[in-house]
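We treat protein structure as text, and this decision shapes the records that our systems exchange. The remainder of this section carries one protein's record, kept here as part of the documentation:
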Amino acid sequence: MWASSEYMHQPWKPCKEHAPSEKAVGDAANSRRHVPDDSDDSDHGASHNKKEARSVAGKQGKPKRGAAADSSSAGGKLPHGKKASLSLSRVFRISTIVPLLQQQWHEQIEGQHMLPDLGASAAAFCLGDICGVVGKGSSGRVFAARLQSGILAAVKLAKVGTAEAHMLQREAKAYQHCKELQYQVVPGVLAAGPAMDGTAYLLATCLLPVVGFSDCSSAKYQAMHAVKALHGLRLLHGDIRESNILCISEAEQSCKILLIDLGQSRLCTQESAFQQELLHTQQLFT
C-alpha cells in the first residue's frame, strides 16, 4: 500500500458552469476498454500515417489549443456522440514523426529542472486536446494529446471513482517515488491530477520516439539496468513484459531503454521478489 505523499494534489472543486457533459466523459472512460485491432498493445504505438504526422509536426499548421482532433469540433467544444467516438478511437501512429519527438525529448531533458505544475497541467486538459490512440496500458487506453504547453504527451484518462482512476493515481505515486529516474529509466511526467473540472483523473508522460529493439544492440543490458534502478528504490515494477519495455531513438545510432506503465508497481522489501522480476526481464531477451 502506498503511503501518502506530499506531492498529491488538494481536492479539486468542480466548476459546473464549464463542466463537460456526462456522455463526453463517459465516452473517454469507456473507450479505454475497446482498443482498435490495428493499435499497438503498449503505452506508445510505433507508427503514424503521413497526413496526421504532417499535421502534428506543424507542416499544415499547429492546431489551436482546445480544438478537437477532427474539424467538426472546432472552437474547443467537446465532441459528442459519434464525433466523440471517432476522436477517441482514431489510431495515432508516430513512426513518421520520430525526428520531431527526438527534438522534443532532448528539449525536455535539458529543461527538466523547470518542473511543470503537474496539477495545473492536468486541470487545463480537455478532450479536444486528444489527437488519437497510441496504444493501451494496464489501466486502459493511452492517447496522444497536445498539452497546454504545446508538448505532445502520452495521456491516460479515467473517470473519477473508477478502478482505472485508482490505478492511475497509484501509477502517479510510483512515478513520484522514482522521480530521480525520470528521463533515465522511466518517462518524464508532465501532468497528473484531476482534469475536466474534476470529473476525471489524468496522467500524462512525454510521448516517446519509439523504434524497434533491432535498432538497439544493448537493449538487454539497458533493460536489466533499468529494472535494477527501480529495485534500488525498493520499487517492484510488477508488470514487466515486452510492451512495457520501450526502445527510443535519442539520436542517429543512439538508443535508450525505458520502462513504462507503473500502474501495478509497489514498494517491496523482499529480495526474492526483486530477483524473480530481474530473472523474468532477462528471459524476455533470450
The longest strand covers residues 130-137.
